[in-house]
Amino acid sequence: MQVYLPIAELSVDVFLLLGLGGLIGFLSGLFGVGGGFLMTPLLIFIGVPPAIAVATQSTHVVASSVSGVLAHWKRGNVDVKMGAILLGGGFVGSTLGVGLFTVLRSIGQIDLVISLSYVVLLGTLGVMLMLEGARAMMRRRSQSRPGKLHSHNWAHGLPLKTRFRKSRLYISALVPLAIGFGVGMISSLMGVGGGFILVPLMIYVLGMPTSVVIGTSLFQIIFVSANVSFLQASQNQAVDLVLALLLVAGGVIGAQFGGRLGAKLPGEMLRLLLGLLILCVGAKLLIDLLVPPEDIYSLGLS
């Protein structure tokens, strides 16, 4: 059954969109990511213009993250204090990022910037997560003593130190604030919640336990993505509500199942699987950039 997307200006099968929403919602609850790093490329693959995919995906991230964070909240796996500080930086970063998005779109470079950003970030993070996950699994099997989750560096000497009891940390609030700002910028430019970047940073830079990272990541993603959605709709008129509602319908259900499964899998397995998934998406985008299109000359609106 086909449905017409008025802002994207194309017809797409309803069940395909519901299935995509459910899949991304499941991954959101499983890995603690908004799912936009996968949904935005998938929407581009089925013909949705990159600018519309980025803007609309933010609304789906909000819904799937709300559903996912509820599952983790019930288990006490959300550090609200850490999430609030990340959120402060995220609001500022996402607001500035939407402004940059508007400028790039006006000069016709936003599609290229989106694709290149995905290839670079997904490739780097995917390799890092897979290597770390594989090392952790090898240590577990050999029953060797695990290394430190993070090491003390210059960041731990910064001022404004505060205690995060849920995460069992005593670090400067400037570090999560800066991380939130950077992730907010990326969220607005790439149509993602930023969890695929935020989760590794929370684990390896902040040193948070994996069990707390997932719920806290989703908590921050909700509000930053909501801010991006509002700004994209008001400034760029790029949010397709029909597309967003169909993605949300599938995503809310999928996130509940992902949250339940995520609570049963060990942290190193989650990192390995997430790294593999990120690499696959990045490879597909790189191939699309390198392979010449069948029709070199085309007319279209971004």
UniProtKB/TrEMBL annotation:
InterPro entries: TM_pro_TauE-like, TSUP/Inactive_protease-like. GO terms for cellular component: plasma membrane. It is a multi-pass membrane protein. Its main location: membrane. The chain crosses the membrane at residues 12-38, 83-104, 110-131, 169-189, 201-226, 238-257, 269-291. It is found in: Cell membrane; Membrane. It comes from the Bacteria. It holds the Pfam family TauE. Belongs to the 4-toluene sulfonate uptake permease (TSUP) (TC 2.A.102) family. PANTHER family: MEMBRANE TRANSPORTER PROTEIN MJ0441-RELATED, MEMBRANE TRANSPORTER PROTEIN YTNM-RELATED. This is Probable membrane transporter protein.
